[in-house]
Amino acid sequence: MGPKEVELILVKEHNGVQFTTSTLVSPAGHPHGHGHALGPSHGHTPVPGEERETWGKKIDFLLSVIGFAVDLANVWRFPYLCYKNGGGAFLVPYLFFMVIAGMPLFYMELALGQYNREGAAGVWKICPIFKGVGFTVILISLYVGFYYNVIIAWALFYLFSSFTGELPWVHCNNTWNSPNCSDLWAFNNSLNDTHKSTPAAEYFERGVLHLQDSEGIADLGLPRWQLTSCLAVVIVVLYFSLWKGVKTSGKVVWITATMPYVVLTVLLLRGVTLPGAMDGIKAYLSVDFLRLCEPQVWIDAATQICFSLGVGFGVLIAFSSYNKFSNNCYRDAIITSSINSLTSFFSGFVIFSFLGYMSHKHSVPLDKVATDGPGLVFIIYPEAIATLPGSSVWAVIFFIMLLTLGIDSAMGGMESVITGLMDEFKFLHKHRELFTLFIVVSTFLISLFCVTNGGIYVFTLLDHFAAGTSILFGVLIEAIGIAWFYGVDRFSDDIEEMIGQRPGLYWRLCWKFVSPCFLLFMVVVSFATFNPPNYGTYTFPIWANMIGWCLAISSMTMVPLYVISNNSTRKPNTHKLVKEWDENI
Question: Could you confirm whether the keyword Metal-binding appears in this record (predicted)?
Fold first, then answer.
């Protein structure tokens, strides 16, 4: 082949990408035209005539990111960690890891998605050997959806149960109660007696979950129709929030991302008026700097940073891929990550004002009522609310908050899967509604295992393995791919091209050295400190733990599997042919 002449005609420019028509002029003079995208060496390859959808308004994007990052863990995890690990002193390691790892990784994912304008897998066209990590994070988001939607279904069940004159977790005279149940009003030391259980605890485990009808994970039973119905409602809401893309989800978050702040404020104003509330808040904020000498405090802070910001799920990449090319993602990263941390801190005042009240009411130490996880929001908090005048109204308000906290986080996880796969398999773009339906229905069918009599065991297993070590591994590979293979300098050039400002030395050092080292440390710690899952006194059998590990490894193996499959299918002379073609042009 001799040298060829190529005529490029600029058609339009959109978000920093120049769409052109190229005509190859052969010696015989017969032109062969085809569409082409000529970007300034940043790897954009949009399909001619197919523009990527963008957010209706900038605030839609910000609310979506905030709504995803601020979830139930901000309410049930951070306040307890803060109290357990030295109160205000816990903020020292928390903020330290936030600055050296949390924000840089958050910024990295937003910039990566916005620049390449594709989902979690498609962005790795910049460094194809790492494309497997894109499928890793997509799988993790899918796995989390299997059980996260169940928490929202529980909240919906509690919401429906709250529309009554007397809340069903107040007394022990219900059909589901056991002889061990002690009335909330009559038994002051119920929280201190290991042989007794409160009406609220029995309502959750026996009235909602029907745990008494299961002997373990090997005895699940059929799905409970009440929880299945609630789960179906959640799935329908998710579908109609996502089926049209960010144009619809961007409007839903105006409610789901803002409502929790309204409710938290209302609950705080009510909580601080309760007897014992100030004692709870003082315990939450009490500073014990000696605790900083304990390694576990720093590990807890690092773990909380990793999971609270939402990096590694592919959601930030998916959301930012719908931004305009020139959007200031640096400012967005600072604003949204800061709001997430402030929300965690603020929710602690709400939680501990009520925990202080419970401690005062039952005349027991605060550490007897302080807990984290589902037990806090489905047992302890409802129990506290039940003692207030107008308790049904407060219960409705509280569970509406839980619903809105959960819905937009679930939307984010689903969008990560949908966008990631649609951008990888382009033909799906024309069938967004059907593909979204397929994803949500598949999620619903798997989630049915979690609403059986023994569903809490499946839930616990998924929660323990689906997004633990695997998500730390995924973010580690992401950071290595960007910093050491694609290159920090090239990545900084990309950001400068978008926002007109090159990342400072601090960000570049964090991306290249600090964040990868931090993540490697976290992966090692997660393996070293691994404990098999359990639910109360129930210990999972070995085969259940094996299934859990298979689940975790299945997402992590996407990285080496893609490398192997890519190398085996690569044509031997591809690079040579491309080089010769470039030289000829």
Answer: yes
Q: Phi, psi at residue 561, to the nearest 5°?
A: -60, -40
Q: Interhelix angle for 469-480 vs 542-556, to 10°?
A: 20
Domains annotated on the chain, with CATH: 58-583 (1.10.4160)
Please check whether residue 114 is in contact with residue 329, taking contact to mean a CB–CB distance below 8 angstroms. Answer: yes
* CA distance linking residue 332 with residue 320, whole number of Å: 10
Q: Please say if the pLDDT value at position 525 is more than 50.
A: yes
| Pairing of β 538-539 and β 17-25 | unpaired
Residues paired with residue 20 on neighbouring β-strands, in sequence order: 10, 36
Tell me the pTM: 0.86
Closest CA to 192 of 351, 366, 352: 366
Q: Which residues pair with residue 437 across a beta bridge?
A: none
| CB-CB neighbours of 337 under 10 Å | 26
Q: Which residues make beta-bridge pairs with 76?
A: none
416 by DSSP, 3-state: which? helix
Annotated binding site for Na(+): 67, 69-70, 74, 308, 340, 405, 408-409
The total number of residues written for the chain in this structure: 585
Alpha helices in 327-431 (DSSP H): 329-362, 374-375, 381-386, 391-424
CA 468 and chain centroid, separation? 12
Q: Cα–Cα distance between 169 and 208 in angstroms, integer?
A: 11
Model pLDDT for residues 259-282, shown as the tens digit of each residue: 999 999 999 999 999 999 999 999
Average model confidence (pLDDT) across the chain: 86
Sheet of strand 5-14, all strands in order from the earlier edge strand to the far edge: 5-14, 17-25, 31-38
Q: pLDDT tens digits for 529-580?
A: 888 999 988 999 999 999 999 999 999 999 999 999 887 665 544 444 344 4
Separation between Cα atoms, residue 196 and residue 139, nearest integer Å: 42
- Residue ranges at the known binding site: 67, 69-70, 74, 308, 340, 405, 408-409
Q: Which two tokens stand for residue 157?
A: 């069940």
Cβ–Cβ under 8 Å, residues 397 and 263 = yes
**Alpha helices (H) in 216-256, listed in sequence order:** 225-242, 246-256
Which residue stretches of 428-573 are H helix? 432-447, 455-465, 469-480, 488-499, 505-509, 515-528, 542-556, 558-569
Contact 199, 183 (CB under 8 A): yes
